[in-house]
Automatic annotation (TrEMBL):
SUPFAM superfamilies: FAD/NAD(P)-binding domain. GO terms for molecular function: NADH dehydrogenase activity. Residues 7-337 form the FAD/NAD(P)-binding domain. Belongs to the NADH dehydrogenase family. Keywords: FAD, Flavoprotein, NAD, Oxidoreductase. It comes from Streptomyces griseoviridis. The keyword Hydrolase does not apply. This is FAD-dependent oxidoreductase. InterPro entries: FAD/NAD-bd_sf, FAD/NAD-binding_dom, NDH-2.
């Protein structure tokens, strides 16, 4: 039983936010029913995105709706508020947030009071001041970006198939991916696989007509899987005629020309930016202690260092790695985020009941990565796998980790059906501007806003 009534505010609905709230629902079930505890989750989207499935969603192997988990269904004992926290005054235990309603009303941010704060806003893309990047770059962190990229790639193949301009055709069939981590390598591998398959449906587009270029600033790709598998990955990609440029940076993509630090220039209509992430900008506005890299200073108990009633985990938190050398922090990845959320939920329940807190300790067990259909790499407890076994391990691991039985069953069903039937290669780019046709029919100018508003 908790000592006193507690209002718990969870900022963020990603891995840490959702799993922490889910854990609290289970640990504080009786207190929630009795009204002694309230849990509020503030999140920009009403769903949690399982990001390891984004490359397969982009390739059409998984439906977009099965990559996301609806928060209101899973967190049925929590109050889910779709909005964003814009400011925090932890000394007064108040948060200011904007919602769709506050924007419509024009009354300014709402104020929300709390007793315990969980900061789990996650991360955003880490961009650099590269000329043209803001105008032409494509991100790969959300399900909307993944599906938008799929539509874009197919549309470029349509342009190449129908144009009479050889320069336009060459630019349309040139795809540049910047960043050799999980997101960049897996997205490129899956989309190249999809485009290779899609080219069968075009009478004048062949796989060899397309240029796929991976740009990585360091001397290796996929550092998470180890140096040996990193070298294997580069070799495997190059065997597929993918141009892998190591120790190379993107210096400009202005005027739809990708200029690399090695002097190469590639006219292209596709630049995908996956070169790392940084803590969510909200962290800098909290006034709470941060590291030199902008992450919250945390203890091994997942409390914010020196700040009572404040907790954090995931990408935005610098959590000491007690299984490594002193001073080391856990990596900002899904493997740690999922396990930290469990300990975080338990520790908040322990704190409310006056019990001793647990220490987060998890030794790194390995990594898996997909390089396309039936292709992958994996490192598990010192053992390495490549090719089909690694790809199968990648799917098995993430199927076991995707939340809810409902999602597991649907994803497994889609994989089974995709093995029995041909891929669906269709661009639904018009979904991004659903009112455009009606606006033209009504005599207006089509809006560029996705919702159709001007």
């Amino acid at each position: 039983m908790v000592k006193e009534r507690a209002r718990i505010l969870v900022v963020g609905g990603g891995y840490v936010g959702m799993y922490t709230a889910l854990r609290l629902q289970r640990k504080l079930r009786s207190e929630l029913r009795g009204g002694q505890v309230e849990i509020t989750v503030v999140t920009p989207d009403p769903y949690m995105t399982y990001q390891p499935f984004l490359p397969e969603a982009a390739a059409g192997s998984i439906s977009p709706r099965h990559v996301v988990v609806p928060l209101r269904r899973v967190l049925d004992h929590c109050r889910v508020v779709v909005g964003e926290v814009t400011a925090l005054d932890h000394a007064k235990r108040t948060a200011h947030l904007t919602t769709l309603a506050t924007e419509e009303e024009g009354t300014g941010p709402d104020q929300l009071e709390y007793d315990e704060l969980v900061l789990a806003p996650g991360s955003v893309a880490r961009t650099l001041p590269v000329p043209g990047l803001a105008d032409h770059g494509i991100g790969f962190k959300t399900v909307e970006e993944a599906i938008g990229l799929r539509n874009h790639v197919i549309e470029q193949m349509d342009i190449a198939s129908s144009t009479r301009d050889p320069a336009l055709r060459d630019a349309a069939l040139t795809f540049v991916f910047v960043g050799g981590g999980y997101a960049g390598v897996e997205a490129l591998g899956e989309l190249e696989d999809m485009a290779r398959y899609a080219s069968r449906s075009y009478h004048n587009v062949q796989p060899d007509d397309m240029k796929w270029i991976l740009v990585e600033a360091s001397d290796r790709v996929l550092p998470e899987v180890g140096e040996e598998l990193g070298r294997y990955t580069v070799t495997a990609l190059r065997r597929r005629n993918i141009d892998v440029r190591l120790t190379t940076r993107l210096e400009s993509c202005a005027d739809r020309v990708a200029v690399l630090s090695d002097g190469s220039r590639f006219p292209t209509r596709t630049v995908v930016w996956t070169a790392g992430v940084r803590p969510h900008p909200l962290i800098a506005l909290t006034g709470l202690p941060r590291t030199d890299r902008g992450r919250l200073k945390c203890t091994a108990h997942l409390t914010v260092d020196g700040v009572p009633h404040a907790w954090a985990a995931g990408d935005a938190a610098a959590v000491p790695d007690v299984t490594a050398e002193p001073g080391a922090h856990t990596a900002p990845n899904a493997q740690h985020a999922l396990r930290q959320a469990k300990v975080l939920g338990d520790n908040i329940a322990h704190a409310l009941r006056g019990e001793e807190l647990e220490t987060y300790a998890h030794a790194y067990t390995g990594a898996v990565a997909s390089l396309g259909l039936h292709k992958g790499v994996a490192q598990l407890r010192g053992r390495t796998l490549t090719g089909y076994p690694a790809w199968f391990m990648h799917r098995a691991y993430h199927l076991s980790r995707v939340p809810t039985f409902n999602r597991k069953a649907r994803v497994l069903a889609e994989w089974t059906l995709s093995g029995l039937f041909k891929r669906e290669i269709v661009s639904l780019g018009s979904l991004e501007h659903p009112r455009a046709e009606f606006e033209r029919a009504a005599g207006g100018e089509p809006s560029t806003d996705p919702k159709g508003s001007s």
